[in-house]
Amino acid sequence: KSNVLREVLELGLRDKKIELALCKFRKKEVTAWKAARTAGVTLSEFLDLLAQKNIDFHYGIKELEEDFEGLI
User: Fold this and answer.
1) Rounded to whole angstroms, how far apart are CA atoms 18 and 68?
2) DSSP structure class, residue 56
């Protein structure tokens, strides 16, 4: 029983993280890279989620600079 409950909680938590990351990305509050980190998925997985949810991928010079700042 406890294993099932733990698994359900982990799945719910993962879904909530993804939902939060997608919302922040939609509002242009974070870059795709930062949203992927928030969601706990790889960048390519996050880009797949954007495509599945029909969310436009907005990425410009500003977002590129922000991503580079995160790497340094």
Assistant:
1) 23
2) -
Task: Write out pLDDT tens, residues 10-59.
Answer: 888 999 999 999 999 999 899 888 999 999 999 899 999 999 999 988 77
Q: In a 3-state reduction of DSSP, which class is residue 39?
A: helix
What counts of helices (H) and strands (E) characterise the chain?
A: 4, 0
Q: What is residue 8's three-state secondary structure?
A: helix
* Tokens coding 62: 């500003």
**Residue 43 contacts residue 36 (beta carbons within 8 Å):** yes
- The whole-angstrom separation of Cα 18 and Cα 24 is 10
